[in-house]
Design brief:
Blueprint: E1 2-4, E2 8-19, E3 23-26, E4 35-38, E5 42-54, E6 59-72, E7 88-97, E8 103-111, E9 130-141, E10 144-150
Length: 166
Amino acid sequence: MSYKDSNLNTKFALFRNDLHNEIYYDYYSNFGYGNNINLNRTRHEGVEAHIGCQLTSILKIAANYSYTEATFTEGQYSGNYLASVPKHIGNVQATLDENIYGKYSAQLNYVGSRYFTNDYLNEMPKMPSYLTLDLKASWNIKPVILSLLAMNVTDKKYSPSGVSVD
């Protein structure tokens, strides 16, 4: 479902994906050298939402949010959450587009807690959620577009994935 006019843009979606043979890199297989394996059936379902608003002629804000339930639907881990998949992901962005001098954006990104990659049993403490800030500037100097991107400008220490070693 979506709505769009000159100042407002919204999108909302429900999703459900039943996957068979989802590929996963198993760090412990192949005598400790790792190997790609196929997981038992999994289901990814949830909602995605977006809202964007043109506040002034040069200032736009936007927000995105995703809620995902990712679980095994068969096999020995049936009912357990799929590792490395956060339930909550979102971002908020403000963009200043002067059309003459350049375009400048700041984006705040959130990734929720999730199980370690090898925690099929969902028994270990989760990896912590994290928040990062990205900045971008671009200038259209025809015929060249020059862009600068600074990611994680607050130098937040985080890991997008992880393996727990007992």
